[in-house]
Amino acid sequence: MDTTSLTGKETAAALNADTERRVGALTEKSAAPRLVLVVANDDPASGWYVKSLRRAAQRLGIDCDTVDLGADAAADTIRAELARLSADAAVDAVMLQTPLPSGVELNDVSVAIAAAKDVDGVSPLSLGLLGAGLPGFPPATAEAVVALAKHHDIPLAGRHVAIVGRSNVVGKPLAQLMLAENATVTVCHSRTADLPAVTAAADVVVAAVGRARLITGAHVREGAVVFDVGTNEGPDGGIVGDVDPESVRGKAAALSPVPGGVGPVTTALLMRHVVLAAEAARSA
């Protein structure tokens, strides 16, 4: 069986084209949308990601600033800054970068981000809105899986989707998004008994556990669709996913590559969320 590559380049390009058009309309009427990235670490990977977000914003005409609180910032300091930015009418969107300083919990500080500006959907309130089916911003990585499936005409309604991973960033919110698409969802995790048997029964498998090449051909039934959300450091220093692609190719009907699959769509959706936040703020 030929395995189709579910690349995200075209999906991201379509999203970005519409986002750029909407940015232009907002800028002409008032001012460019403004995103502020809050950083409290000295992690090289986080630094690279912040730079990539700033470049993406610049290409689309979005103003993007960074507030660096330092790698030893206290929880109170981070919360206060997030609250300040949330109250600032000149700021449309706020993102808190991870990892956070030792002893600082994401849920404890992200609660200070106003839901209307929480464009990466990380706060407990945003996750609660998603779970209740109310308007809000879902985590962009989880949303990217659904967007990628739709772009490639992968049906979700009535399908059995197995999600490997239960994080608040991908696994749990993706389960809610898949339920909204009328899929039947199984969320797998470290305590799941006989993981290959569970995932091999699914029509769609999403690998989002953060373990390099955990998912192999044994985890996938013939003709299934596989989305790889993993970004792990490989033996040569490059990025590898949670799926062993060589083991899955020829068995799965389709597989999203790493890199080049979910990643570009995630960034495009984050920028889209910034514009949506700005549009809502300026129409209020």
Description:
This protein has 284 residues and is of the alpha/beta class. The protein folds into 2 domains: 30-114, Rossmann fold (3-Layer(aba) Sandwich); 140-263, Rossmann fold. Helix content is 41%, strand content 15%. The protein contains 10 helices and 11 strands. A 6-stranded parallel sheet has the order 1-11-8-7-5-6. The chain has a 3-stranded parallel sheet with strand order 3-2-4, with helices on both faces. Strands 9-10 form a two-stranded antiparallel sheet. The longest helix has 22 residues, at 262-283. The chain is globular and about 55 Å long. It starts with a strand and ends with a helix.
Give the gist of this structure.
By secondary structure, the chain is an alpha/beta fold. The chain has 2 domains: 30-114, Leucine Dehydrogenase, chain A, domain 1 (Rossmann fold, 3-Layer(aba) Sandwich); 140-263, Rossmann fold (3-Layer(aba) Sandwich).
How do the helices and strands line up, and which of them pair or pack?
Elements: E1 4-5, H1 9-29, E2 34-39, H2 44-60, E3 63-68, H3 75-87, E4 93-96, H4 106-110, H5 124-131, H6 140-151, E5 160-164, H7 171-180, E6 184-188, H8 195-199, E7 204-207, E8 225-228, E9 232-233, E10 239-240, H9 245-248, E11 254-255, H10 262-283
Parallel strand pairs: 1-11, 2-3, 2-4, 5-6, 5-7, 7-8, 8-11
Antiparallel strand pairs: 9-10
Helix pairs in contact: 1-10, 6-7, 6-10
